[in-house]
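Appendix B. Chain record.
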Amino acid sequence: MKDQNRDNLQLVIVTFGMIFLICVPLALIGCNTSPSTPVPKVVSETKVTVLAFIASWCEPCRFSLPTLIAIELKGVSVIILDIDKDSEWRKLAEKYKITSVPTFFVYVEGKKTTRTQDISVVVRIVKENIK
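Structure tokens predicted for this chain:
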């Protein structure tokens, strides 16, 4: 049976010196949590897509999650792949030659424009391509 906590992400949000711990089911924010959905199909169907390879133990990955959620809420397709949680995602990480996390790919109109580990680069490219 699937672990109930497996589909939730814990986000730490620091606002005005206060720390909030929030568990967010990915399905509620629209992030793809199923390895059965082919990534190329999602990438080709949207103007801007962010593909994020993360790991649950990775602190920079956890800190990038609120930004990825904000990008998703702006109408950008965000696919978050936690390579610790599914062997299919690990295989996909190998295919994309992921050697460290977080690693982000940004696709604009189906074409890969950027591979980066810097979430601020992702934000800049998204801002340039959504109006």
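Further analysis of this model is presented in Appendix C.
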